[in-house]
Amino acid sequence: MATETKPVPESKPTFRDRLSVLSEHDFRWFFAGYTISLFGSSMAPVAVAFAVLDSGGGGSELGWVMAARILPIVLVLLAGGVIADRLGSKRVMLAADLLRLGTQAVFAAVLMAGHPPVWAMVALVGVWGVGEGFFLPGLGALVPELVRRERGLADANTLLGLAGSVSKVAGPAAAGLLTAVQGPASVLIVDAVTYGVGALALARLSLPMRRAVAPGERRESVLADLGQGWAEFRSRTWLWTSTVQMSLFNLLVWAPFLILGPLTAQQRLGGARAWGLIMACYGAGAVLGGLAMLGRRPRRPLAVAMLFGIGWALPSAALAARLPLTVTAFAALLAGCFSSVVSTLFTTTTQQNVPPGVRARISSIETLGAFGLGPVGLALAGPVAARVGASAVLGFGAGWQVVTAVGCLAIPSVRNLRGGSRPR
Q: Is the pLDDT of residue 34 over 50?
């Protein structure tokens, strides 16, 4: 008589299992190079700020230089997505790293030669931003090509997110120390070297270089390629809905928090030290959230991401409610933790549910859509708060985040989308 066998329950993955994605040769090389490059990139803004101030500039000049980095990113993102899908992410990202290496090396040389005029720094930072704008769209398209095992994709994105979180904490601290001891030029030299390491890692990847045009193939125009990417983007309700929600989050929640948070800290929480503690807790939470996400693969990742996205309302709500510093810092810790969950799940879900040939274009549209309104929010937060009060602006943002996250969950394609295999 046949005996019935019971299914063996799946064992819980160990921490070592969750790091097994690093056993994949290409991803291991890219992760190492990208992490080192991120560390240098997080150092550079500190050096640039003090370079402007050391050259006699003030707040206005600093604003021009900082804007000169952001504007080119926004302007070239869409073109970067088209070119990365045409030529392959590896080729475009390698060129972007070499461009940024050269720019930072020239910037360092100019600083060592004396005090450059503001226009020269604006130009150099602008070229740096162009490199950033071409690098970013290829990133989301490259990672799935580096990870052969389906279950490793989420862990790969988690590790890359962890690298970003750690660099945002460690990079500025190291830059401040090095700038004080050796000057801003030394930081830019380090940044140039880290871009070189990133380029070397990309060059070592075993991915084949993609042909720009196959023999006998007729290449569509750039606008036609962009139109195809847009059609793929808007055909997925869960994708454009999530992007719109993130765009309004940056406009109405995060931008006011970044502007009015320091102001509130100055007025009643203890000044710069209090704000530093709040942001340090946010960074630490992002690291903890990334560690917690290793090996986690929820069945409905986008629904989970929306639920955890509600956590972004916590620090704004704490400031609006005039809660003590300890409570506000804890709220920031939770928000940082939840941010890693949201980032990993949304990135992985997108990679699993869009065709490989348009991933870079969709990545560029997502990035532009999600962050394009951020500068508007930064500009308007102060004037609006002057009229209605900082607590009203922060409280509205917190409420908006809760309402829109719940609203997105009411959309079936968002609520029911399941993690799946990557399209090939």
A: yes
